[in-house]
Amino acid sequence: MITAIVLIDTDPARIPEIAAEVAAIQGVSEVYSVTGEVDLVAMVRVREHEKLADVIADRLSKVDGVLRTQTYIAFRAYSDHDLEEAFDLGLGD
């Protein structure tokens, strides 16, 4: 699975509507409204590298109100959550 983190600048008056439209795109697993220099962060997960262009360039960036995107492709995931799932034996606490 290929994961891309997409930072999205939007029309500030339409953040909730844009977020909902982006979240409805196949391949987008999550959309977060955030504080800081961008308005939304979307997580895109696809099976093939070529699908990133379909999801991000052909669909997400063309949503009305999306002004600019920056895409970061993840190489590896490092998190306690991932490690806990990997070593979970299914035993109750």
TrEMBL record:
Residues 6-76 form the Transcription regulator AsnC/Lrp ligand binding domain. One of its GO terms (molecular function) is sequence-specific DNA binding. Gene3D superfamilies: 3.30.70.920. One of its GO terms (biological process) is response to amino acid. It comes from the Bacteria. PANTHER family: LEUCINE-RESPONSIVE REGULATORY PROTEIN, TRANSCRIPTIONAL REGULATOR AZLB. One of its GO terms (cellular component) is cytosol. InterPro entries: Dimeric_a/b-barrel, Tscrpt_reg_AsnC/Lrp_C. Pfam families: AsnC_trans_reg. This is AsnC family transcriptional regulator.
